[in-house]
From TrEMBL:
<feature type="domain" description="Circularly permuted ATP-grasp type 2">
    <location>
        <begin position="78"/>
        <end position="451"/>
    </location>
</feature>
<dbReference type="Pfam" id="PF14403">
    <property type="entry name" value="CP_ATPgrasp_2"/>
</dbReference>
<protein>
    <submittedName>
        <fullName>Putative circularly permuted ATP-grasp superfamily protein</fullName>
    </submittedName>
</protein>
<dbReference type="InterPro" id="IPR016450">
    <property type="entry name" value="UCP005522"/>
</dbReference>
<dbReference type="InterPro" id="IPR025841">
    <property type="entry name" value="CP_ATPgrasp_2"/>
</dbReference>
<dbReference type="InterPro" id="IPR051680">
    <property type="entry name" value="ATP-dep_Glu-Cys_Ligase-2"/>
</dbReference>
Length: 475
């Protein structure tokens, strides 16, 4: 298979150096690529596509008028990470999750970080994601963020940067697990020769972590799903099956004497731990959104009484806000007395005078984001915008500075992908998964999301992105 014409250009490439040399951890795979035919690679890709369909590895796109379930395209060429690189990522992610957990416990209780003005009190207390019913609560075992899927990107300097902390209901881990099974079958000998760290024990580790949240010797665990029309329903059912636990909807549960019960063919059975895949606002219509048809009336009172545990704990979203993100380096320093191992994308806080002045003076070079917007709304990409748009955002920032942050535009790293024209580089991000039970553990693999279109930086599955298996090497 030829790789001529593949070049890293201005960005960091995971396989080739700028001089065109093969990076050491890719040498074995590159030798394989050099010997295998294009026909064989296309056959492997075709088989992978068929297997995905057979497994039902689909997701729904709500805005898609066709209403079809889609397959998250799995590129047949794995992303390979050396162990030395992974060790740094692992240490940085453990540090970050530890600090964010301490932050959540603090802001819902003593609020020391707010009193010390390390984080502006109004930023937290006025946030729509700060759940006042959670004030004064300490979740089981003192853990708020049990499952985290942190998004990282690699800039042209080769360094990883944290792009986002997903502390609510992070998705995608089922694709990481199933992709591994497909790719292992594609390259069985190569997989063994490379010495790839396993991810297949994730469901067992997830179950162990969930069971840890209860003091019962054999707690009953369930996965709470919004239902079959949810975009991640495949994942909900897959994880419940792999763990050997019940998959339940809100209508399957009821609360009696501040305890939660499942309705079964044998009668009511108490449930002790719930891995919820429902957003905070919909958990309990009596406490949060009264219009919710997905949650369970009274379940939050059962949670407060200590009769049921949730993963993740309600209220974690306040630490997953674009404006709070900018303060995470200070949060790490405040609680742990350490410098961050992994850095944020440099972020300018328009609420701070010096940062605001820099943003207004360099708006044509920056990406400006509204802190309470999502999905690409409320955003200005300076280099691709007009002077009129620059002027409009300058006015918005000046009038309401606390609602905006700004960041430099990044050049995402590229990884080799199989395309219609052979092997070419495509931009990627990285989502490792972290479990927090008795200890914090980073799963030695990740969901690598790929922008399949040439030159595109959009990796989201709902906008045409794909995925890769991520190999973390033992050595």
């Amino acid at each position: 298979m030829k790789t001529e014409g593949y070049s890293s250009q201005e960005h960091y490439d995971e396989m080739f150096t700028k001089e065109g040399a093969i990076r050491p951890h890719y040498r074995e795979f590159y030798q394989f690529l050099s010997k295998v035919s294009s026909k064989k690679m296309n056959q492997l890709q075709f088989s992978a596509n068929k297997t995905q369909k057979a497994m039902g590895m689909t997701f729904n796109v709500y805005h898609d008028n066709q209403g079809l379930e889609k397959i998250l395209h799995l590129d047949i060429i794995p992303r390979i990470l050396p162990n030395s690189e992974w060790k740094k990522l692992e240490a940085g992610l453990k540090q970050r999750v530890h600090a964010l957990n301490l932050f959540l416990q603090d802001v819902y209780n003593d609020q020391k970080i707010l009193k010390d003005k390390v984080v502006p009190p109004e930023l937290i207390l006025n946030s729509k994601d700060y759940l006042k019913p959670c004030m004064g609560l300490t979740p089981p075992k003192g853990i708020w963020c049990h499952i985290t899927g942190t998004d990282l990107v690699r800039d042209k300097d080769g360094e990883y940067y944290i792009l986002e902390d997903n502390l609510r209901c992070p998705s995608g881990v089922s694709y990481m697990l199933e992709s591994r099974e497909i790719i292992k079958r594609a390259y069985p000998q190569l997989f063994n020769d490379e010495g790839v760290m396993p991810v297949s024990d994730y469901p067992a580790k997830l179950l162990k972590m969930l069971q840890f949240l209860s003091d019962k010797p054999k707690p009953v665990v369930g996965v709470l799903t919004p239902g079959i029309y949810n975009s991640a329903y495949f994942e909900h059912s897959y994880l419940a099956l792999q763990m050997g636990v019940e998959l339940v909807n809100g209508v399957d549960l009821l609360v009696k004497d501040k305890k939660v019960y499942m309705q079964t063919t044998k009668g009511l059975e108490q449930i002790d731990v719930i891995y919820r895949r429902i957003d905070d606002a919909f958990i309990d219509p009596l406490t949060f959104n009264p219009k919710s048809m997905l949650g369970v009336p009274g379940i939050f009172e059962a949670y407060k009484a200590g009769n049921v545990a949730f993963a993740n704990a309600p209220g974690t979203g306040v630490a997953d806000d674009k404006a709070v993100y900018a303060y995470v380096p200070r949060i790490i320093k405040y609680y742990l007395g350490e410098e961050p191992i992994l850095h944020n994308v440099p972020t300018y806080l328009c609420r701070e005078e010096n940062d605001r002045k820099y943003v207004l003076d360099h708006i044509d070079q920056l990406v400006v984001k509204e802190t309470n917007a999502a999905g690409g709304y409320g955003m200005l990409i300076g280099p691709k915008s007009t002077k009129e748009e620059h002027g409009r955002f300058k006015k918005l920032i000046s009038e309401n500075p606390e609602n905006y942050i700004a960041q430099p535009t990044l050049s995402l790293s590229t990884v080799p992908c199989l395309t219609e024209n052979g092997i070419a580089g495509r931009h990627v991000d990285l989502r490792p998964y972290i479990l927090y039970g008795k200890e914090i553990e980073v799963i030695p693999g990740a969901l690598t999301r790929v922008a399949l279109k040439e030159g595109s930086l959009v990796v989201n599955s709902s906008q045409g992105g794909g995925s890769k298996d991520t190999w973390v090497l033992y050595n």
